[in-house]
Amino acid sequence: MSHRRLRATLAAGAAGLVFAAAIPAQAQWIVFDPQNYVQNVLTAARELQQINNQIQQIENQTTSLINQARNLASLPYSLVSTITSQIQRTEQLIAQAQRIAYSVASINQAFTTSYGAINLNLSEQQMIAQAQQRWQNSVAGLQDALKMQATVVGNISTSRTTVTSLGASSQSATGALQAAQVNNQLLVQISQQLADLIALESANGRAQALVAAAKATDQNQSSAEFTNFLNYGAGYQPGSAEMFH
Fold first, then answer.
1. Which H, E and C letters describe the chain, residue by residue?
2. Which of 173, 176, 217, 221 can pair with 71 through a Cys bridge, CB separation 3.0 to 4.6 Å?
3. Model pTM greater than 0.70?
4. Of the candidates 23, 243, 70, 35, which has an alpha carbon nearest to the alpha carbon of residue 173?
5. Out of 30-44, 97-111, 191-205, least confident range
6. The pLDDT of residue 146
7. How many of the other CB atoms lie within 10 Å of CB of 165?
């Protein structure tokens, strides 16, 4: 071995002795326990898994709360007032029925005074007045039916817009409450349309009934007047007459 290599080896050995002397006695020997290390790693892994589980539970609870909030969210608007106003217009037309109202008492009164049996003890002017009144009732009924038809036809455009809006709301509903509210408003819309159909049918039936009642009463009156004319007095009776005295 050369002197240079020997010197380097001795120097390294001396440095190692100095480093060992500088370390405290209790730290000079480091013992690695593999079993303890594995146990510590497993404990840390279990704690990490518990933390992940807690995070997942919090996320699930948050999602559930968001879904509940969506289910409880109501529609931003309501078309019930629009549909109700259509029904109110129909009701107003029914209440504004001319001359003979949609009332059993009113109908009974009209048939007692103007329709049905003919009172032949009335004067000719009184009979003409009754016939005129029946004609006016028929014309008023026909006019009411036409106004009802115009109102129902006018409601078609509004109903179409309402159904279109509700259909779009149904497609974009975010929760059960909004879907239920859309269905409820659609049911109200259907009820309004049914109410219009019932009112229209009632107005048409009322007009036709008034025309038919007036026609039947006029025929009865004509027949009674003709019979009364044929039975007027005893008629001509021949007898003797003296022309010159």
1. CCHHHHHHHHHHHHHHHHHHHHCCHHHCCCCCCHHHHHHHHHHHHHHHHHHHHHHHHHHHHHHHHHHHHHHHCCCCCCCHHHHHHHHHHHHHHHHCCCCCCCCHHHHHHHHHHCCCCCCCCCCHHHHHHHHHHHHHHHHHHHHHHHHHHHHHHHHHHHHHHHHHHHHHHHHCCCCHHHHHHHHHHHHHHHHHHHHHHHHHHHHHHHHHHHHHHHHHHHHHHHHHHHHHHHCCCCCCCCCCCCCCC
2. 176
3. no
4. 70
5. 30-44
6. 92
7. 15
Domain boundaries, the chain: 36-71, 75-229
Listed in sequence order, the residues at least 6 apart from 241 whose beta carbon sits closer than 8 Å to its beta carbon are: none
CA distance 45 to 52: 10
pLDDT-based confidence at 143, cuts 50/70/90? very high
Average pLDDT in the 6-32 region? Answer: 49
Task: Say how far apart CA 214 and CA 228 lie, in whole Å.
Answer: 21
Phi/psi-derived region of residue 233, left when phi > 0, alpha when psi is between -120 and 50, beta in every other case: left
Sign of the alpha-carbon torsion through 234, 239, 243, 245: negative
Mean of all residue pLDDT scores within the chain: 75
Quick one: average pLDDT of 110-115?
A: 83
Cβ atoms of 134 and 214 within 8 Å: the answer is yes
pLDDT in tens, 156-175: 888 888 878 777 777 766 67
